[in-house]
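My main concern about presentation is that the manuscript never shows what a single data entry looks like. For the editor and my fellow referees, an illustration may be useful. For illustration, here is how one protein appears when written out as sequence plus structure tokens:

***
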Amino acid sequence: MATDGKRHGIQANKVRAMLATLALDAGRAVSHTDLADELWAGQPLGNARNALQAHATRLRKVLDGDRAPRRGATVLRAVRGGYLLDVPPGCVDGNRFLDLATRGAAALPLAPERAIELLQAALELWHGPALLDAGDGLRCQGAAALFDERRLTVCEDLVRARLAADEPSRAVAELRRLVAQHPLRERFCELLMLALYRTGRQAEALELFHVTRRRLDEELGVQPGIVLQRRHTEILSQDPALSLSTVTAVT
């Protein structure tokens, strides 16, 4: 967590979970009940409000730092029935990431260079797995899964933008890493096949298809999807459309 341009570690698990839960709804109140459900996940608790108050006090010390805030001026506010993190949503990296990702995807069809800038900025906000050490509550776990999936989509959009901007060699380098990390994600495989083809490596593109087909069969018991099969057919026939930037929009 960063305040006043400085990064601060939070050692206590429940305090981290409380901050993460409030940050997911920055600017909106989260009820005592919802916070207790998130922090203790159904575990029996004698006095949840007292426990939350204690964690809130510890969290305020981190958020306010050495400042002695005026009464009511702290960013962590106690409100009727709950707590509120009183910061603009744009101050939360997760929201900034989603905004940049959305803008980058929108720019991709007509301005791939601008899309690259936005999507790279979105990915630069990541410093590890989403909501790491934020606890086992359903809100944080669900949000983490959504953020991780959105991150992969942004990676897809970024390499699509590179292909549209005529940067196939750059796309190949990024896609090799992504395919190694996510070998069963067909979209990465399909994009790498296209990037390899555009850099004159048709044989490598076809071999990648066969490797992926075997892996899908052995690990999941399925055949490649229609998009991947179509890309294979297009590369086999050296379809002229593969040289067009619009081909990256195939889904």
Q: What stands out?
A: The longest strand covers residues 76-79. The mean pLDDT is 89. The two ends are 37 Å apart (CA to CA).
